[in-house]
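pasting for the record
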Amino acid sequence: MILCSDIAGWMESLLKPGLLSLPLLGHDWLRQTSRDPQAWARAVAAIAPVRICEPLFPSLAFQSDTAVISLGEMTVLATQGSAINVTTDHHPFAQLMLPYRGWGVFHVERQRFENPVGDSVLFLPPAPMTLENNITCGVALNMNPAILIETALTMAGPEGLPPERLNVFQRPQLLRLHDPNCGHLINGIYAQLLTLHHLCAPPGSDPSALRLDDVLVRMIVLLLVPELQRMDPLPDTPMASLAAKAKLESLVDWIETHLENPISLSELENQVHWSRRSLQYAFRDAYGCSPMQWVRRRRLHRAMQRLTNPQPGDNVASIGRSFGFPSPVAFSREFRRQYDCTPSSVFHA
């Protein structure tokens, strides 16, 4: 028999921030603390309209921390706290539920899904659901399902997708870490959320320059439509024709004029109407790197020019931010990797 005192001690140990790697909640300016279930329901109302929210252990004091951040086409919700029973009404968002501690049992569209940490993540379409967990500790990625469909079609390119494959974005699906099509992507999503956490400090930082929303949306699409993960050689690559070469040169010119703006891989695919595979092969054939590696090279080249001839008010960090490096540490690391010297040494030369 489990006593309330045992549960209280167990909950207290799990809720110590030092034991958690949950993103966003470590930033005071983002974190909102709720002392009762209804306050927590109000904190997440913009993402999931909660109709019922009850503590699993009513005799214990309730506490929950929540952080919500808008990231381009996506809203990221991180929350940890007391165990709850939740029922939501219909809402417009598709969601990817990523557990960080404990387990959760979801009921949606007459189906039951267990989503324990270390085993799976759960994709949910826009639909009412109920949730019971033994601790609230996870991240929900929320997006319009139309963005998922649009991105999937962009990644597929002219080869297209059968219309019935797009139905996958309207069905709940448990995605398991041990699935060879899923594991590396799920781990990648967790890693991107850690990057997001670091980019959100100090207060007022803007992580949008890296277009992490597009990165995360694309990873979700690859989880749900695994055939898009294929990167086997195409029988006829885009570089085989003069017209394709001209199209690639035009895209490179477009990149050059937009280096100071956020650039996503989906935007590049849209510019030339090539599939994910075609664009990757075109850049590797022409430049020996991926499209986003090319973007990074050109940004570093432009940053080198600016460091050599700074404008009034420039400093190393501001120059890095101007060319898509919101983190000074990442800017210095990538710059040193390409030029074998630091941005500061060039700036102060």
